[in-house]
Amino acid sequence: MKTNYGDFALKYIPYNENLESVIVKLDLLGIESFVIPLKNSYNRYISSVDNIYFMVLPWYEEDGALLKDLKLRFFLNVLATLHSKSFYVIKVNEAFFKQTYDFIADKIDDVAETLDKYMTRIERLDYKSPSEWLFLLNYPRYMEAINKANSALEKFSRKCENKSSLRMVFTYNNFNYDHILLKTRKVIGVENIEVSPPVYDIFYTFSCLNEVSIDFETYYKEYFKTFILEDYEKEWLTALIYIPQIQFSNNEAVNISNICYSLNYLKNAQEIAKIISLKYKEEGEKEDK
After folding, report:
1. Dihedrals φ, ψ of 16, to 5°?
2. Which domain holds residue 209?
3. How far, in Å, CA of 287 to CA of 82, rounded?
4. What average pLDDT does the segment 270-277 reach?
5. What is the pTM of this model?
6. Could you give the C-alpha distances from 64 to 6, 56, 101, 177, in angstroms and in order?
7. Are residues 101 and 72 in the same domain?
């Protein structure tokens, strides 16, 4: 919107009864990198007309350059700052960790079953397509990832025995390179911010990334130096990232692309798992376990 007072962005959003209070608290944190909506005449950030909800935000120009590596590095630093400044501890019962364990275990079992059924079908074929050969040759890598996910999950369960507290933070839940404005050092898209465990935000961001040329290791080290995970969170996150992400298609070209994508995901997961397992000191120094 072009006005006499400058340019602004009008963004329609789905109804979220908690968003107003979240943005109030986000503004109080004073993290200048996030673009905060402007307040309306009722001193609220979220406006509505006929049950249509929207925000008005300052407009920032961006040069359009991709620069994914620089954007990712900047974003992870902002995310680490958000988690560090917003975290607090709540009391939970053991049922929470049991439910989390069961949820991840079911997801691992579902993926393992899908991989096993596809493998069984391929083994029965006299003629195998290029994508089927690609999967067949890399099947051990998928099984290794499943085993590592199960191993991390069991460690998570042991570390949560008799545990009655849980860290909560403001989670961004909206990673997109288009939301990262390098020119003005800003991050837009605050409408998905909510309060949840930090593990889910880190995992969501990682699952959106599958670049070949970006040095994930360096950038995630910077994150984990700023926001140091507790031991149970490390195993929780490791279990999630090791679960293979793959979709099969009847289209041969698409299937090859999907398998290559999933194999690169596993490669990145292995690299990030190593970073997660490091010990980080409060002053930012690290040492291997």
Report:
1. -145, 110
2. 68-172+192-287
3. 25
4. 92
5. 0.90
6. 21, 22, 42, 10
7. yes
